[in-house]
Amino acid sequence: MVDSIAPEEGSRILGRDAQRNNILAARVVAETVKTTLGPKGMDKMLVDRIGNIIVTNDGVTILEEMEIEHPAAKMVVEIAKTQEKEVGDGTTTAVMLAGKFLENAEKLLDMKIHPTIITRGYRWAEEKAHIILNELAVEIDSKEELMKVAETAMTGKGVEHLKEKLSKIIVDAVEIVAENKVVNLEDIRIEKHKGQAIENTELIEGIVIDKERINIEMPVKVEEARIALIEEALEIRGPETEAKISVSTPDQLQNFLNQEDSILRSKVEWIKESGANVLFVQKGIDDLVQYYLAKAGIYAIRRVAKSDMQSLSKATGAKIVSKLSEICSGDLGYSAYVEERKEGEDGMTYVMGCKNPKALTILIRGGTEHVIDEVERGMQDALGDVAATLKDSKIVAGGGAVEMELAKRLKEFASTLKGREGLAVKEFASALEFIPTTLAENAGMDPIDVLTELQVSHDAKMKNAGLNLFSGKVEDTMIEGIIEPLKVKTQAIASASEVSIMILRIDDVIAAKRSSGNSGKLGNMAGYD
What we know:
- The protein is an alpha+beta fold and about 525 residues long.
- The chain folds into 3 domains: about 10-140 and about 395-525, GROEL, domain 1; about 140-200 and about 360-390, 2-Layer Sandwich (GROEL, domain 2); about 205-355, GroEL (3-Layer(bba) Sandwich).
- About 50% of the residues lie in helices and about 15% in strands.
- The protein has helices at about 15-35, 60-65, 70-85, 90-110, 115-135, 145-155, 165-175, 250-275, 285-295, 305-315, 370-390, 400-415, 420-430, 435-440, 445-460, 485-505, 520-525, and strands spanning about 10-15, 45, 55, 140, 190-195, 200-205, 205-210, 220-230, 280, 300, 320, 335-345, 345-350, 360-365, 395, 465-470, 475, 485, 510.
- Strands 7, 8, 9, 10, 11, 12 and 13 form a 7-stranded mixed sheet that branches.
- β12 (about 335-345) and β13 (about 345-350) form a beta hairpin.
- The chain is elongated, with a radius of gyration of 29 Å.
C-alpha cells in the first residue's frame, strides 16, 4: 500500500537491500582511491569527455573529477571534501576508513545485530579513539619537525628527491604569514610556470602576478615602488542605456573629444599627485590613459583579479581605493622593486622586497602542466598539514603506527563492554588496520606478514612502530621522522565514523528512474539505477 503513493516510474529499495546497496556504493568509492595511499601509491589518469587529462594520486581530486551518481557514494565524497577543507590532507584515509567501517558493519548485520546497536558501538569507539589519539600525540617543538610533517605529506607526489627543499619553502611560507600560530592559507599564493625544472621552484617574499605591463613604453623595472591599488576603471564609462550624441559643427566634435581627453588626463594627474609609480587596476585602462601613464614612467597592470588585489594589499600595505579622486599618499603600499620578467613569450610581474609581508607567493616550475599540477597538489597537502600542526602543535607517528596502536587499545576497550556494542567497537578497531595493510600492499609487501609484525611490535609496547616504506621495515616512525598532524587523524576518523553511522541508519531509498542510462558511472557500478 505504501508504494502506491509513489509515481509509477519511481523505484524503492527497502530494509536490508537498501543497507547492502549503500554499503556497496561506499566500498566502491574506497576501493577506487585505496591504491593511491602512501608514498608507494599509484596514480590515476582522469580523462574527461573533451580529452582533458589529469594525472594524480590526490584522493579528493580523483573523487571530484569522477562522475558519481549513487547518493550514498556522494555522501562519502562529501567527507573527502570536508577533510580537504578542514585540514588539506588525509582525504584518502577518510574515504578508506568510511568504506571499511561499513564493510565491517555488514558482517554484524549478517549476524542479525540491529543497526542501532552497531551505530551506538561506533559512536563509543569514535569517542574513545579521540581520547587515545590525544594521549598518543606529542608536542612539536622545532622547525625541523614541521619540515618532517611537510615531507611526509608530499611523499608519493613524485617530488621525493626534492622534498627537503620544498618542505623548507612550505615551512618558511607558513611561518611568515602566521599570526598567533593561525595561518590563512589564502595568504600563500601558488603560481605555476611551465619551463625549467621542479628544483627551480622558489619562495618569493612578495607577490607574483601572472600579467605583464600593459604598454611597452612603461618601465620594465621600478625601484622603490609606491604601489596604488585601484578598483575603479580608468576609462570613460558609457551610458547605461543606448544614447546618441548629435553634433552639427567640427568645433562641437572637437570640444567633445577634448572633454573626453580632459577627463582621462585628470585621472592620471590624481595618480601622479598621490606619488604612485606602480598601478594595479581591477578593471580596464583606456588606451589614452596608458599613453599618459607610460609618459609619466608609471608601471601599470589592468584587470587584476580581486583575490590578487587583496594579496597585494596584505603584502605591500597598500589600501584598495574604490574612488580614484580620493586617492592620497597614505593609501600607497611599498616594495623594494616591481619588475616584469619574461620567460619565453609569457611575462609575469614580480612585486619584491615587501616590508613584513602577510601574503607571499610560491612559484612552482616544471616541464609539463601535468607535472606542475601534481606538485601543486602535493604542496597544498603539505601546507594544510603544516598549518594544522602549527595551530595545534601536536603530531602523531605516521606509517600506520597510530592506527595500529588505536586498533590495539580499542580492542582492549571492546573487551570491557558486556553488550553487543562491544562487537561493533571491535569491528571499528579492525577497520583501522586497513590503513597499514593498504600501505604495505601498495608498496608490494605482503600485507598479512606486515600486519602480524606490527601487531607483535605494538603488543611489545612499541606504540610508534609503523611502516617505513623506504627501508621496507617496521620501525619507530616518530624517530624516523615519518610524522603527521594530529588534526589529520582526528578529522578523518570523525568524518568517516559520522558518515558510516548515517548510512547504516538508512533502511529505505526512494528514487525516480532516469530516462537516460548512466552506463559507466559509479551509480551503476554500485547497483543503483
